[in-house]
From TrEMBL:
HAMAP family: PIMT. Belongs to the methyltransferase superfamily. L-isoaspartyl/D-aspartyl protein methyltransferase family. It catalyses: [protein]-L-isoaspartate + S-adenosyl-L-methionine = [protein]-L-isoaspartate alpha-methyl ester + S-adenosyl-L-homocysteine. This is Protein-L-isoaspartate O-methyltransferase. Catalyzes the methyl esterification of L-isoaspartyl residues in peptides and proteins that result from spontaneous decomposition of normal L-aspartyl and L-asparaginyl residues. It plays a role in the repair and/or degradation of damaged proteins. It comes from Candidatus Woesebacteria bacterium GW2011_GWC1_38_13. Its main location: cytoplasm. GO terms for cellular component: cytoplasm. It is an enzyme of class 2 (transferase). Pfam families: PCMT (PF01135). The keyword S-adenosyl-L-methionine applies. Keywords: Cytoplasm, Methyltransferase, S-adenosyl-L-methionine, Transferase. One of its GO terms (biological process) is methylation.
């Protein structure tokens, strides 16, 4: 059984490398290791490694494998050492992206707004032995102040604009990657916090259009 999943995982990596022209071997190596089928509902295991988002219930989907690869690359491409200290993820889903990040960061903090998904992710990650991933139930709008500042922040739901609090919880030279824009189409955007004289600013770079489930705003 697991042999079949390994075969489909190799196929998934081949598509990302050859069809999309994705070149970061460090990311491809980790995509080969993490058992994506363990993060999807049992009934969808046969499509776990397909080049498509997968329904994880509660109106949410797990991002397409290529999107996970691309966002991970944008987040780590500029890190000086491979293991940067801490990353914050907004939108845990069932925990797949968090598992990928745990190979690149010493500590992964991840926040999810839907209780059942947060619970599911916690179970998935502990069953598979990911010890450096810490989950929390709540809205990612407020980041996770207790563990800030972060070396990197990744937002995995589409936002109209990045919540200000997230920029504040980023270190100087830290990187934030998020799908940003109005409507269904989002522009993959990377922000780098820079300090000029005494003033902090966010440098912005854009990397094409992606589709994402929308960010849920908490009612206050
Ligand atoms: N990172 C996940 C992607 C899941 S899809 C993966 O690896 O597959 C995006 C997730 O963001 C959904 O689970 C959704 O419930 C969650 N989400 C949406 N708005 C949020 C918010 N305000 N705070 C935290 N999580 C949010």
């Amino acid at each position: 059984m697991d042999g079949n999943f390994q075969k489909s995982r190799r196929e998934m990596v081949k598509i990302i490398r050859e069809d999309y022209g994705f070149k970061d071997e460090r990311v491809l190596e980790v995509l080969l290791k993490v058992p994506r089928h363990e993060f999807v509902p049992k009934k969808s295991r046969n499509i776990a490694h397909d080049d498509t988002p997968v329904d994880i219930g509660y109106g949410q989907t797990m991002s397409q494998p290529y999107t996970v690869a691309e966002m991970t690359n944008l987040l780590i491409a500029k890190s000086e050492k491979l293991k940067a200290e801490r990353v914050l993820e907004v939108g845990t889903g069932s925990g797949y992206q968090a598992a990928i990040l745990s190979h690149f960061f010493d500590e992964v903090y991840t926040v999810e707004v839907i209780p059942q998904l947060s619970h599911l992710a916690r179970n998935n990650l502990s069953r598979l032995g990911y010890k450096n991933v810490f989950t929390k139930l709540g809205s990612g709008e407020w980041g996770w102040k207790k563990h800030a500042p972060f070396d990197a922040i990744i937002v995995t739901a589409g936002v109209d604009k990045v919540p200000q609090e997230l920029f504040e919880q980023l270190k100087v030279r830290g990187i934030l990657v998020a799908p940003v824009g109005k409507g269904y189409d989002k522009t993959m955007t990377r922000y780098t916090k820079i300090k000029k004289l005494r003033k902090e600013e966010m440098k912005k770079e854009e990397f094409g259009t992606f589709h994402f489930v929308p960010f849920v705003k908490e009612k206050r």
